[in-house]
Design brief:
Largest sheet: 4 strands, antiparallel
Shape: extended
Radius of gyration: 36 Å
Number of strands: 9
Number of domains: 3
Structural class: alpha+beta
Order of helices and strands: HEEEEEEEEEHHHHHHHHHH
């Protein structure tokens, strides 16, 4: 922030470069500053450098970068031994005749009884906390209480600062698209008119897509069967003490149980992987834009194949069955035989899934897209009266989801910021722990006010985005049905 400071700079303060900031300087910290300037002809600017030479105290200052007797005012708070630079553009055809720093005010923290057991703050050490809205200087004696709360507040506020504007942009786009798409009833009427144009191409491709979805449904059903067989197989590898009754060698029986437990753990991991894959496949089937999720779905199904490998559990079930038979553990033998049956069925299903995966991938990418692209092409060719396009609807869905995510992130971070700032009040008056209370209070009030605005926006927009996302999904389901 640049301000104009009305003062008369003395010649001594202007000419000496580098200089000690004393001439024309008021305050307790003038002698603790060193300053310098340099001019860059290539960059067309004067760079001012100011250093706090004090080892333990911050300095609050106002200074002027004087370029050919024109004052460019700045304010800053310097931590102990900190150096800052400020640039001033210079557009003159020739280098400036004069460039220098004039320090107007340079102050150590004001004297306070609470600082260092009654000593003045100018002799008590201070620390600094950088925030997106400025620096907060606090007394080192209060660091153990203040620093954790300030860190927490700043961490949350940075999340607000990084996400709020982006969230607003996505929300604005979501509302714009919602207005453009119109109501579900309007969309249904538009599709009813256009679906028979161009020789009924849209309607025909919609029917083709419907047939493809039946094949995709079969793929999903096979995954569900595989999940069931993996679960049943794992349950039959679980051997209890009762299952070992009648065993002729209890030591070998307990080893048998331990080996079965290892196999069961491996199968449980496979079951979880298949479970995720089945859920993802179902999600893709129901998604308004399956193509956008296909990479995730294919990658998840591939994990099933990787986890299944060469199906070691089938051989393991056969070995354990034979071992149980040798020692006379009849119940365990029956369980391993059942596990072998389920693993055989699972092997057949995984083999079928592997052979169908390329076709599944192609269908998901192309089946629906073909009909929707045909519709959009016809809709774009209409001169008026058609606002709905699948392309716009998909964009609206994405913007609504992004808005939900941003609104959640922003509102939670804004709440965290305000809660941490509220806790700071329990430390005491700002003057009891801040090195520069007026400046620090201003930073905190700014963070609190902006967090309050962000929190209210996040709560409101999240509710709005959830409602619109529901509307967009219902619109997609209706539009798909209306094309057929």
């Amino acid at each position: 922030m640049i301000r104009k400071f009305a003062f008369l700079a003395t010649a001594a303060a202007i000419v000496v470069i580098p200089q000690i900031a004393q001439a024309a300087c008021a305050g307790t910290a003038c002698s603790a500053l060193s300053t310098a300037t340099n001019y860059s002809a290539s960059d067309k600017r004067v760079r001012a450098t100011v250093t706090n030479k004090d080892q333990s105290n911050p300095i609050r200052l106002k200074f002027c970068v004087n370029v050919d007797y024109h004052c460019n005012g700045f304010e800053a708070t310097l931590s102990p031994r900190e150096t800052i630079t400020r640039d001033v553009a210079y557009k003159g055809a020739k280098p400036p005749q004069i460039h220098a720093i004039d320090v107007v005010i340079a102050e150590f923290p004001a004297q306070r009884a609470g600082a260092a057991g009654g000593a003045s703050a100018s002799t008590a050490t201070s620390a600094a906390m950088a925030t997106p809205r400025g620096k907060i200087m606090y007394l080192a004696a209060k660091e153990s209480v203040v620093a954790p709360l300030l860190t927490k507040a700043v961490t949350y506020f940075k999340v607000v600062d990084d996400n709020f504007l982006d969230g607003q942009r996505h929300a604005d786009k979501m509302h714009e698209l919602s207005e453009k798409l119109g109501t579900i009833k309007d969309v249904e009427s538009e599709i009813a008119v256009l679906r028979n144009k161009d020789g009924g191409k849209v309607k025909d491709r919609a029917h083709i897509a419907q047939g493809a979805e039946l094949q995709l449904s079969h793929f999903s059903s096979t995954l569900k069967l595989a999940r069931t067989n993996a679960e049943y197989a794992a349950s039959n590898f679980k051997i209890s003490e009762d299952d070992l009754k009648g065993a002729q060698d209890m030591q070998r029986a307990r080893q048998l149980r331990a080996d079965a437990e290892k196999a069961q753990n491996g199968l449980n991991a496979l079951f979880k992987t298949i479970n995720v894959a089945a859920d993802v496949a179902i999600m893709v089937m129901a998604d308004p834009d399956p193509g956008s999720k296909v990479n995730s779905a294919v990658a998840t199904v591939q994990k099933v194949f990787d986890a299944f490998g060469n199906n070691p559990w089938l051989d393991e079930a056969a070995k354990l069955e034979a071992s149980a038979q040798r020692i006379g553990a009849v119940n365990a033998e029956k369980k391993f035989a059942a596990a072998k049956t389920y693993m055989t069925a699972l092997k057949q299903q995984v083999t079928e899934l592997q052979s169908k995966l390329p076709e599944y991938q192609s269908l998901v990418r192309n089946a629906r897209g073909s009909a929707e692209e045909s519709y959009d092409k016809i809709a774009k060719g209409q001169k008026s009266g058609n606002n709905f396009k699948f392309e716009s609807l998909q964009q609206a869905i994405e913007e609504a989801q992004r808005t939900i995510d941003y609104a959640k992130t922003v509102s939670e971070a804004a709440y965290g910021t305000r809660a941490a700032l509220q806790q700071l009040k329990s430390v005491g008056e700002y003057s009891s722990w801040m090195a520069f209370p007026s400046e620090g209070r201003g930073v905190i009030e700014m963070m609190d006010s902006e967090s309050n605005t962000a929190f209210n926006w996040g709560v409101k927009e999240r509710q709005s985005a959830v409602a619109l996302l529901k509307k967009f999904n219902e619109m997609y389901t209706m539009a798909r049905a209306a094309m057929q």
